[in-house]
């Protein structure tokens, strides 16, 4: 326990950056609806962003305020089954006639997040409580191109399908609360977060920055962290419940997600490792626009990460770069995404001043 406390005192920004970074990441999934139109979830807009949590997710943080800013870029493609759901939604064609769509979807997104976070010094149920609020601003671009063949009675008609849209605006607000406990090298966490649907949203657009409805997500996590050897392994699982979209009278199904991260600390300033996620929709969608049946999406991904801790005046900073490549995709676009995050925080009590080296070998 003492060795853990010593390490945590010398690396406050890293500890405080991990879960606020996760909180800022969650907002992206609302934007991925515009970036990743899909058959599962309403127009592919799922509240949860796979990869929200990563390394050190359950490790308690230093008390006080911290600020996290992140840049996110994603690029994805998909085939006809994903394109069809979005084409129906925006009114390009109606499924009331026999139709065959051969189309491809391409989408990109460049998003910026800001997450102010406050960690309480007073224990709650023997653990450490923290709250945050995430906001997002950015640009998304989506295009669908292909051909549509329809059969009405004895007649067969073929016409090109082409639609594109881009939007630069603000997204929803995403509050989050966590409670964490430390027992030596073992760390535990429970969390809950929600969606306040105030972002730019139009049911008839290909690209949106808000999801148009509320949602709530809850779960728990575990981190094994041995600071003497620099070994770390984290896993966080949870479930998302989506409320009905009042504009479309549509309700997305329940989702399960599992995020993981593993890293090795080369020093108290630098760590490298792997991150990954598994996302699976376990409940069917329902409502007036559920025209394609019970499509359930799933995806897995993995990729590298690197983090670096450094002094910033009297504060401490943390940079993290991580990337994901998606595979095992079902009823979702597939692609890759990259995060670059900067966190800043005051040093924890007992930490060395910023003017002195953070690590002594």
Q: Can you tell me about this structure?
A:
With 361 residues, the protein is mainly beta. Helix content is 12%, strand content 53%. It is built from four helices and 15 strands. It has helices at 2-10, 12-26, 28-35, 80-89; strands at residues 64-78, 98-119, 128-152, 155-170, 174-183, 186-195, 215-226, 231-242, 250-251, 255-265, 270-281, 286-287, 298-312, 315-330, 334-345. It has a twelve-stranded antiparallel barrel with strand order 1-2-3-5-6-7-8-10-11-13-14-15. A hairpin with a 3-residue loop joins strand 14 and strand 15. The model is unreliable at 1-39, 86-98 and 350-361 (pLDDT under 50).
Overview features:
361 residues, mainly beta, two-stranded antiparallel sheet, 4 helices, 15 strands, 12% helix, disordered C terminus
Number of helices: 4
The overall pLDDT, averaged over residues, is: 78
Percent range for β-strand residues: over 45%
With strands numbered from the N-terminus, the spatial order across the biggest sheet is 1-2-3-5-6-7-8-10-11-13-14-15
The main pleated sheet reads as: 12 strands, antiparallel, barrel
Helix/strand/pairing category: mainly beta
The helix content is 10-25%
Oligomeric assembly: single chain
Distance between the termini: 21 Å
Rg calculated over all Cα atoms: 22 Å
What is the overall silhouette?
elongated
Question: Total number of β-strand segments?
Answer: 15
User: Which series of helices and strands comes N to C?
Assistant: HHHEHEEEEEEEEEEEEEE
